[in-house]
Amino acid sequence: MQDTKERIVSLADQLIKSRGYNAFSYKDISDPLEIKNAAIHYHFPTKTDLGMAVIDVEMQHFMAGTGKLAAQPEDKQLKFLFDTFSKKHKEGLVCLMGSLSPDYDTLPEPLQDKISGLSAAILEWTTGCLERGREKGLFRFEGEASDRALLVISNLLASLLLSRVMGSKVFGRITHQLLRDLGAGK
Amino acid sequence: MQDTKERIVSLADQLIKSRGYNAFSYKDISDPLEIKNAAIHYHFPTKTDLGMAVIDVEMQHFMAGTGKLAAQPEDKQLKFLFDTFSKKHKEGLVCLMGSLSPDYDTLPEPLQDKISGLSAAILEWTTGCLERGREKGLFRFEGEASDRALLVISNLLASLLLSRVMGSKVFGRITHQLLRDLGAGK
DNA sequence: GTCTATATTCCGATAGAC
DNA sequence: GTCTATCGGAATATAGAC
What we know:
- The structure is a homodimer.
- Chain A has a single domain, classed as Tetracycline Repressor, domain 2 (Orthogonal Bundle), CATH 1.10.357.10.
- The first copy, chain A, is mainly alpha-helical.
- Helix content of chain A is about 75%, strand content about 0%.
- In chain A, helix 1 (about 5-20) packs across helix 4, helix 4 (about 45-70) packs parallel to helix 7 and helix 5 (about 75-90) crosses helix 7.
- The interface between A and B is large, with 47 and 47 residues.
- Chains A, B: This is TetR family transcriptional regulator.
- Chains A, B: Keywords: DNA-binding, Transcription, Transcription regulation.
- Chains A, B: It comes from Chitinophaga ginsengisoli.
- Chains A, B: InterPro entries: Homeodomain-like_sf, HTH_TetR, Tet_transcr_reg_TetR-rel_C_sf.
């Protein structure tokens, strides 16, 4: 059974990805957990503390997920990245960066730094994946691997955002085209 | 000299693109304009009314801007689209859809409909531009023009968001790679 | 660790004078 | 069309009992 602290972080994570950082309140967490807002403040004195915990957990999940795949071929590794976005899409969520970046300038500095750190880690991993995959002939693309990785991340992020505005089918259309461009089949 | 109503909309537009819809308040508008919040409510009874006016103006600008270019070659037309995003990038802003889509589910329905309408218009225009441009040999890409248009819009939107999180250079790296992929030179 | 109770601040919105 | 004044509500956060 999950303890309260973990459940708070988990719910906050969901709320950020569904409604945005500035749009959710402690009440949105205390009500479903049937606790009072003071209990949340005990675990996380400020909303900034809570936000940072959410990003920390996301970073740990990303590191753990990619770590397990280190020995797999690169097309399987890239599929892992697409699958994490596909899962969010099915749940009607956007990714953490997609949710937090529009509000970035309104966020306290320690939170900004955590977000930038996470984005750098994702870019670095994706770059390595594409680079090695191209050398092995698993992918086909022009230009620097780091620039291509940026495009892939950019498309995945925006596919979740645009799915909300333009309809659910948009996600599949973007990811399909993306994989096709990389020569990574389907 | 701009009248008050136009200045309110213009400031709201800037605030949405810099801080997000839920993060800005009437005070952020009344202070710089040196008016009281009641004056804003006179012109726009609710925040929803103000938000809709912002989207209406954006739509009018888009229609006017693209209308003027109808006779130009398609690579020039596409450049117009990139230039509007480049302008926002220089001002440190994101685009309207990039700002509003994460909060989409928290927005009142009439506002959601306006946003979806704007996004559909932009997609339709971009699709036509790419389609005709490819027929003339100005662009080179695989797949449906509408899917490619989606990818272009997706990248432009995300390039502004990621520039905030990952640093300003990201915008140029994404747009450069995008144009290169389309065979649209620089 | 969770509670009750409350402080403080800010928000969108309205009434009525000018 | 803008003002003063205020309402009602919600948000983050804190103090102190249990």
